From TrEMBL:
GO molecular function, one term: deoxyribose-phosphate aldolase activity
Record family assignment: Belongs to the DeoC/FbaB aldolase family. DeoC type 2 subfamily.
Protein name as it appears in the record: Deoxyribose-phosphate aldolase
Gene: deoC
EC code: 4.1.2.4
A Pfam entry, by short name: DeoC
InterPro entries in the record: Aldolase_TIM (IPR013785), DeoC (IPR011343), DeoC/FbaB/LacD_aldolase (IPR002915)
Secretion signal, residue range per the UniProt entry: none
Pathway annotation from the record: Carbohydrate degradation; 2-deoxy-D-ribose 1-phosphate degradation; D-glyceraldehyde 3-phosphate and acetaldehyde from 2-deoxy-alpha-D-ribose 1-phosphate: step 2/2
Gene3D superfamilies per record: Aldolase class I (3.20.20.70)
Keyword hit for Ribonucleoprotein: no
Native organism taxonomy: Bacteria, Bacillati, Actinomycetota, Actinomycetes, Micrococcales
Domain of life per record: Bacteria
Length: 333
């Protein structure tokens, strides 16, 4: 049974019927409404938790291991991608003990350069298991035909992408065309399959800043999971607000509830606007207190970030030496 077939069977069991507009609407609108005040209060409370000095080194290294080091600019070049990969492999050139990041995230046409720079395929110990993630499906708007979205995905997978970050059709979702969104995710998931039968991991970008309400974010989270997403991701980083702690908490609660129902673990990726180690630690606390520390692994939690790594490296240096390094200590991405 393929991953797509397995996901569909699980969705049928949870929904109690075919995943069409009517069944999905009944299920998604039957979910308990979100208490916005309660959600934000819980998040604010978790955000006040402190990390003891003895645990700070662990926290900083954990953050590094969970980063998708990202460049998603129209001016990206092969040289910039090669530099990004070099930093991903050894973030602190002066400290060989510094862990590598989880993945580099690029546009699909940059995938071959990232794969080449890594020097081997994903999972090879020579490059520390760093994945190549590609944004696809007409990122960031998602405004394209399904045929274009599937071709975009297949091109990235054939070029060597280990992970695909797809954007949902927010217009279709907000118009209540849940079946259309579900079907597109399923087809993109199928397009992630390689010739050898393995499948690239699929992250579903909700673009929470455009979904307007917590209830919509909760429904979109469940829809992405039901359709077979391996991760649910907050944002493209191109729309504000991007990742926030309350939104991430809400998505973690959806993942927690799905695990309770099915036993299946789904990942969460906040992306956009997370720039300091202090903020990232708050996300670690949210994860640990909501779904458990077992989720603090690259296959279950990621930070989508470009500038976060530099601040973590400076904090890591401070912890080691007792003083802050100058701004030229880390490379400018």
């Amino acid at each position: 049974m393929t991953t797509t077939e397995l996901a569909r069977r699980t969705a049928l069991q949870v929904l109690g019927g075919e995943p069409d507009d009517l069944t999905l609407r009944r299920f998604l609108h039957g979910l308990p409404g979100v208490d916005a005040v309660g959600l934000e209060q819980r998040s604010a409370g978790l955000g006040t938790r402190s990390i003891k000095t003895t645990s700070k080194a662990w926290a900083l290294d954990t953050i590094i291991r969970l980063i998708d080091l990202t460049t998603l600019e129209g001016a990206d070049t092969p040289g910039k991608v090669r530099s990004l990969v070099s930093k991903a492999k050894l973030p602190d050139a002066a400290d060989p003990s510094c862990p590598s990041v989880a993945a580099v995230c690029v546009y699909g046409d940059m995938v071959p350069y990232a794969v080449e720079a890594l020097g081997a395929r994903h999972g090879d110990p020579d490059h520390g298991g760093i994945s190549v993630a590609a944004v696809a499906t007409a990122f960031p708007s998602g405004r394209a035909s399904l045929a274009v979205k599937l071709a975009d995905t297949r091109d990235a997978v054939e070029a060597g992408a280990d992970e695909i970050d797809m954007v949902i059709d927010r217009g279709a979702f907000l118009a209540g065309r849940y079946g259309q969104v579900f079907d597109q995710i399923v087809e993109v998931k199928e397009a992630c399959r390689r010739e050898d039968g393995t499948t690239a991991s699929l992250k579903i970008i909700l673009e929470t800043g455009e979904l307007n309400t917590y209830d919509n974010i909760k429904r979109a989270s469940w829809l992405g999971i039901l359709a077979g997403g391996d991760f649910i991701k907050t944002s493209t980083g191109k729309v504000q607000p991007a990742a926030t702690l309350p939104v991430t908490l809400l998505m973690l609660e959806a993942v927690r509830d799905w695990h309770r129902i099915t036993g299946e673990r789904i990942g969460v990726k906040p992306a956009g606007g997370i720039r300091t180690s202090k903020d990232a630690v708050k996300y670690l606390v949210h994860v640990a207190e909501t779904v458990g520390e077992e989720w603090l692994q690259p296959h279950l939690f990621r930070f989508g970030a470009s500038s976060l790594l530099n601040d973590v490296l400076l904090q890591r240096q401070k912890l080691t030496t007792g003083h802050y390094s100058g701004p030229d200590y880390v490379t400018i991405d």
